[in-house]
């Protein structure tokens, strides 16, 4: 029987995954020493079993990864057959090239570390931009669990006359997939970024030329500072659109983004549950479990 190990802050994901797979769920013991070092203990027999370390790599992604690596190594020493990682949110994807002299490409370095620690990995919609597939980074088998069907189901149930809005060219891969799944039209804006908190986007034009009762649904993968989604919301309101619904796949939500979006004119802000947040309304447990099953056969 497979074993699911829960990493800190991911108990709900681990529980849902174990339930869907018919697996044993173990909450490892993590001891933090006074100097900040940690030790781990797995209370349960994992000999000969497939072990799944389940943990979203946010917040504190560097600390979370070290915990994942220690748990994976411990499971191997205890005789696990294979060890996989389920990371609903995959960190260290932003620095995918050297932007300035002397910079390291941390996306590649992190992929090398993960590939040495586990046998396979499943994650939800990673931030793929200049690197187009995980296979270009990781030397282990990887599977991307797609959130599009879950987002589309939520939009179908909750939003009347939706028009999906991608706030920049990077977002088209997610927006187009959700639009196809829920049968809604979509538009994609153009973004100019001058810094982490300094962006602008083009004024959106409705698919029919004018906004006439449709509800814009702005979708982005990672909402961190939220500047891109904020500018899209402001431009939609300035263009005469109804108050938009804002959907984040990964709710990093640095600063006070949630309140700022509402102040800018958003009707509602929701997110997938890849990162625990008060806006979580869309569960991606089913696509994660479907992806994991392929590694257990």
Task: Give the helix tally.
Answer: 8
Portion in strands: 25-35%
Top-tier CATH class of the largest domain: Alpha Beta
Query: How many angstroms separate the termini?
Result: 12 Å
Oligomer: single chain
Q: How big is the Rg? A: 20 Å
Query: How many runs of DSSP E, i.e. beta strands?
Result: 16
- Just name the CATH architecture of the largest domain: 3-Layer(aba) Sandwich
- H-E order: EHEEEEHEHEEHEHEEEEHEHEEH
Strand order of the largest sheet: 2-1-5-6-7-8
| Share of helix, binned | 25-40%
> For the report, how would you describe the main beta sheet?
6 strands, parallel
Shape category: globular
Provide mean pLDDT, rounded.
93
Return the structural class. Answer: alpha/beta
CATH topology-level name of the largest domain: Rossmann fold
Sequence stretches where pLDDT stays below 50 over 5 or more residues = none
The overall number of domains is 2
